[in-house]
Amino acid sequence: MPTLHNAIRSRRFLITWWPWRSLAFVLSTVPVAAAVAVPFGLLAAPWLVLLRKLLTGTADPVVALLLFVAGAVLLAGLGPLAARPLPRLERHRLRLVGDRPLVATGSPWRRLGYAAVMVTAVPVVYSALFVTVLLIGVCLFSPVLVDGGPVSFGVVTIVTAEQAVPYAIGALVAAAGVPYLLALTAAAHAAVARAVLHTASAEALRAELVEVSRSRARLVDAFEAERRRIERDLHDGAQQKLVGLTLQLGLARLDLPDSSPAAGAVTTAHRQAKELMGELRELIHGIRPQLLTDLGLAVALRDLAGQTPIPVRVTADLPRRLPDHVEATAYFVVAESLANMAKHSGATSGTVTASEQAGLLVVEVGDDGHGGADPARGTGLTGLADRAAVAEGRMLLASPPGGPTLIRVELPCPTA
Prior knowledge:
two-stranded antiparallel ribbon; 3 domains; Heat Shock Protein 90; single chain
C-alpha cells in the first residue's frame, strides 16, 4: 500500500507526485487549523483572560479559579461538538499522504484532543516550517535582493552581491531538501492524526481478524462439504442411471439385426452414451476424486503422477489422513502444477513430495524444465496461490531462467 512514509525513502521521490501531495496537505492544513481556532478560541476565552491576568500579575485567586472552571466546562461541554466535523474532514485530507483509510472516529474526547493539537502544536510546527522555507528563499535570492538595500538575518547582514553568493549557493543546496521537509512534516502530522482519531483498538482489530479467520474456515468447510455432496449425487445418481442406459442401449443393439434401420441409430446413441459417461466420470473426478476420498492424498498424488505424460517421482510421507479441505487443496494444486509442467516447462522429468512438518502440510512440485515461470504472465500460478490462501496457506515459487522450477505450498493442518 503506497504511503508517504515509504515514498520518502525512495530514490525517485523528487520525480513523483508525493512532494506535490505533501505540499497540498500542508497548505490545506492552514485553513483547517484557522477554522478550528475560531470556535475553540471563543470556548477558551476564559482561559485566555486568566492567562493575561497571570502574566500581568493581576489575577485574584477566586477569579482565577472561576475563569479556569468556566473554560474547562465550556471546552468539555461544547468542545467535542465543535470538533465533530474534524474526523470526516481529515479522512479526506489524509488520502493525500496515504491510502490507508481512517476509521472509527466516534470518540468525542479524541476529537477534542485532535482539535487541541490543531490549535497548539500545529501552528508552532507549521510556523517553523514557513520561517525555514522563507529563510531559504531569501538566501537564494539574496544576490538580487541586496540591490534594494542590505539583507539582514539578525546576526548576519549582507550588503553586497559578492557577500550574498555563498548564501545563495547554500540555499540552492538546501532547496533540494524542501520537498523532503514538507513530506516529513505532512507524514508526522498524518501519523498524529491517525494515532489520535483512529480509535479502533488492537484488541478490537485482533478480535475482528479472528472472526474473519473463523468465518473463512467455515466457508471452506461448507464449500468442501458441498463439493462432496455434488460428487456423491453425481456418482450415485446420474452416473448410475447413465450406466444403466448404456447397458440397455448395448443390449438393444445386440437384439437388432444389422440390416435394421434402427440399428444405426441405436449404435450411435450407445456410443454417445459411453462418451457422455466418460465425460461425467471426468467431471466427478474434477470435483473430488473418489481415490482421494477413499484412500487419501498420498495414493491420489501417485495416481496423478501416473497420468502425467512425463515421468514424475512421488515421495509422500503422510502417516495420517488430513482434513478434507487440506487434502483437496493440495491435490488440486499438484494437479494444476503437473498440467503446467507437461504443457509449458519443457521438462523431461518431475518430482512431487508431500510431508507433514510442524503442523504444516508441505507439498513441493519440481521439474528440470527451462524455468522462467512468472505469475504476472498468466492466471495459472496466481490461481494456485489463491487456492492455497483460501486454506490459510501460502505458495512459494522458484523458477529462474534456465530452470529448474520448484513450487512449494504450505498448508496448516492441525492435529485435532
